[in-house]
Amino acid sequence: MRRHLHSVSDISAMLAERIESLAAELFPAGRRHGHEWRVGSLAGEQGCSLGIRLREPRRGVWKDFAGGEGGDALDLVAAARFGGDLREALIWARHWLGLSDRAAGEGRAPPPPPPRAEAAREDEERRQSARALWHGGRLIAGTPAAAYIEGRGVGLADLGRAPGALRFRPDVWCAERRINAPAMLAAILREGKVVACHRTFLAPGPAGRWTKAPIKAAKKVLGPMKGGVIPLHRGRSGRPWAEAPEEDTLALCEGIEDGLTIALHMPEWRVAAYVAAGNLRDLALPERFRDIVLVRDRDGDNPAPQRAVEAASDRWLAEGRSVREVKPPEGFKDFNAWHMAQLAGAARAARRGA
User: What does the alpha-carbon distance between residue 352 and residue 354 come to, in Å, rounded to a whole number?
Assistant: First the structure.
């Protein structure tokens, strides 16, 4: 059996030592901003939602403020190149660092960036892996995924029908924990085809409930999601995405939970999740959707989501569509947080009246 001379933590530390070169290679469209490398998202487009720390303290640590993912330098390689697969990231990192399995310090020059044809092939392989993962899941009714959604205040019965884009698997590889774990799967579609798979890792909670797994990055995307959305609700017409009538209003939310909350409160709207703010400007929306509602989070001082919204809105307005924004009431990060507060208040009132 082959034994490597460098541990996982060693590899991550060495990547952190060369983090500026690594960030530029993984995200050539990014830009240095102070002590961070900034890029739109893990998809690599221009923007500021994903920040990679270039200096101590916390050199090599990264955070996607739009998607909620983060971790160390090795996690960054896994998320950016391999859909979260740490084993593949280790192989790539050892080559990039010029390490040899024979002796510490012995090495070779990093390989050149892959040619465009090879990059396209890698993207297609990731798409195929994403499709296989999602197709291997089962419909969420009666699964921990349904219990998780209900724990966020949205019952499938209240929605009228379970979203077909959501599935469940009990055995999804979790690179952070290095085990197979239960996860809710969501198909990310572009032009009607599955191009990526969103994973929400789950863990059992009290009283038979299910919650997000208590790990650094409970939500991950496998595959090139650029321009894709997760369809969650068919709205008033009840017709599939490809057959949606022009009069449908399309509500676009960042997260799945927020999107389901909007579907609960505004059942006449068609609802989809765009996953990360950096993905907004690239959404491939059919021409039939003329009325768009952007459901916003309250992002504090982070300007990146606002810039992404403005860029997307300008494009859609230029295409002759109507665009409007809605935000949750002050004091709530998103509409799901507001919805949960309303449910808790109603429950307290019911107990007082009992």
Answer: 6
Strands, E assignment, 85-223: 138-139, 166-174, 179-190, 193-204, 210-212, 219-222
Distance of CA 261 to the CA centre of its chain: 18
Q: What is the 3-state secondary structure (H, E, C) of 20-70?
A: HHHHHHHCCCCEEECCEEEECCCCCCCCCCEEEECCCCCCCCEEECCCCCE
For residues 42 and 219, the answer to whether their CB atoms sit within 8 Å is: no
**Spatial CA neighbour of 289 closest among 247, 349, 328:** 247
Q: Pairing relation of β-strands 50-53 and 36-39?
A: antiparallel
Rounded distance between C-alpha atoms, residue 64 and residue 218, angstroms = 13
Q: How far apart are CA 295 and CA 278, in angstroms?
A: 15
Q: Are 278 and 43 in contact (CB under 8 A)?
A: yes
Tens digit of each residue's pLDDT (9 = 90 or more) over 86-120: 778 888 888 888 874 433 333 344 455 555 666 67
Output the six-digit token pair for 338.
């507001």
- Residue 79 tokens read as 């998320």
CA 6 to chain centre: 31
Cβ–Cβ under 8 Å, residues 285 and 291: no
Token code pair at residue 9: 């933590």
Show the domains of the chain with their CATH numbers: 8-113 (3.90.580.10), 116-224 (no CATH), 226-354 (3.40.1360.10)
| Longest CA pairwise span in the chain (Å) | 74
- The owner of tokens 């507001």 is 338
Q: What are the φ and ψ backbone dihedral angles of 67, each rounded to 5 degrees?
A: -90, -15
Outline where DSSP puts E strands in the chain: 31-33, 36-39, 50-53, 62-64, 70-71, 138-139, 166-174, 179-190, 193-204, 210-212, 219-222, 230-233, 249-253, 270-273, 291-295, 322-326
How distant, in Å, are the alpha carbons of 4, 10, 200, 272, 341 from that of 1? Answer: 10, 20, 34, 48, 55
C-alpha 71/C-alpha 111 separation (Å) is 25
What is the distance between the alpha carbons of residues 179 and 172, in angstroms, rounded to a whole number?
8
| Per-residue pLDDT tens digits for 182-231 | 999 999 999 889 999 999 999 998 888 999 999 888 888 888 888 999 99
Q: Which two tokens stand for residue 273?
A: 């999740």
